[in-house]
Amino acid sequence: MTGPHHRLSVHNVTFQGESLAELEAHWAALGVSRLSILDSQLLEPQFPMLLHGHAYSVEAVYHLFAGGRLSSDPHAARTALATVIDAAAAVGARTVYMLTGGRGDLTWAQAADRFCAMVAPCAAQAKAAGVALAVENASSLYADIHLAHTLRDAVALAEMADLSLCIDVFHCWAEGDLAEMVRRALPRTALIQLSDYVLGDRALPARAVPGDGTIPLEGFVAQALAGGYRHGFDLELLGPRIDREGHLGAAQRACDVVGAMLDRLGA
C-alpha cells in the first residue's frame, strides 16, 4: 500500500489526548511524513528524539497566544510564544499558527491593535528563525480565545501584524466573498486546513471527512494551487462523526480522498 499524498498532514487534534507513542503508531499506520502538532507536544522532551531517525517533517505547530486572553500580561504571552518559536526552529518546523486570544471588553479594532503590539517581537523572532508565524480564521463560537472570525478579518489582522495566514476552510467556506479573499490571502498563506460539513449537522464541532459533506473542497484547492500555493494541506478531523467512525479510520479515508483530489489537480 502506498502512503498518502506527500503534501498531506493529519492534525494531531484528530487524536486528542493520546500519547506521543500512540501518535507515532498512527503516523506509521497512515504513512504520513508531514506532522501537524500541538505546542505542548513540540515541547515534550521526547519529541525531537522521536523525529530523529524518521523521515518526518513538522508542517505546523498550533499555539494559543496569550493564554487565550489579550488582557493577559504581554511579557508572559511573548515569552511563551518565543519558547514555541525556538523549539519549532530547532526541529525545522515550517509554521507556527495561532489563535490570537479573546478580546474581552475591547472593540475589534482595539483588540487588533493590542494583538499586533503584543506579538510584534515574536513576529520578528520568527522571521529571523525562518519560521512562518500565522493567524487562522475560526468561528465566533471561539470568541473567548480568538479575534478573527471571518477570512476577511483574518487577512486584515495578518496584514496589520505582518504575519502569515492559516486558512481553515471549514470556518470560511460559506462566506460570500471567499474567492476574492483567497486571492488576497494566498501570498501570505502558510497552511490550508481541510475538512467537510454535512448540511444540518448541529453536533459541534460538526466536522466530516472530506467528500462526505457539502463544502466545495476541490474548487477551493484548485483555486489555491492555481494561485501559486506551494505548501501543505492539513486534515483537521474532530467531532461526533469522526468519533463514530473511529479517528484512525476517518483519517485514513480523508487521506485517500484528498490525496486523490490533489493527484487529479496535479499538486
What does this structure look like?
Keywords: Isomerase. The chain has 267 residues and is α/β, with parallel strands linked by helices. Helix content is 42%, strand content 15%. It has a domain at 8-192: Divalent-metal-dependent TIM barrel enzymes (TIM Barrel, Alpha-Beta Barrel), CATH 3.20.20. It has helices spanning 20-30, 39-42, 47-51, 74-90, 108-129, 151-161, 178-185, 217-226, 240-245, 247-264, and strands spanning 8-11, 34-38, 57-64, 95-99, 132-136, 164-168, 189-194, 233-235. The longest helix is centred in the middle third of the chain and has 22 residues, at 108-129. The model has no long low-confidence stretch (mean pLDDT 96).
CATH architecture of the domain at 8-192: Alpha-Beta Barrel
Approximate shape: globular
- Average predicted local confidence, pLDDT: 96
The radius of gyration computed from the alpha-carbon positions, rounded to a whole number of angstroms, is 18 Å
Note the beta-strand portion. Answer: 15-25%
Helix/strand structural class: alpha/beta
CATH superfamily of the domain at 8-192: Divalent-metal-dependent TIM barrel enzymes
Strands of the biggest beta sheet: in what spatial order?
1-2-3-4-5-6-7-8
Number of strands: 8
CATH class of the domain at 8-192: Alpha Beta
Major sheet details: 8 strands, parallel, barrel
- Percent of residues in helices comes to 40-55%
The total of helices stands at 10
Low-confidence stretches: none
Would you give the CATH topology of the domain at 8-192? Answer: TIM Barrel
In N-to-C order, the SSE pattern is EHEHHEHEHEHEHEHEHH
First-last Cα distance: 20 Å
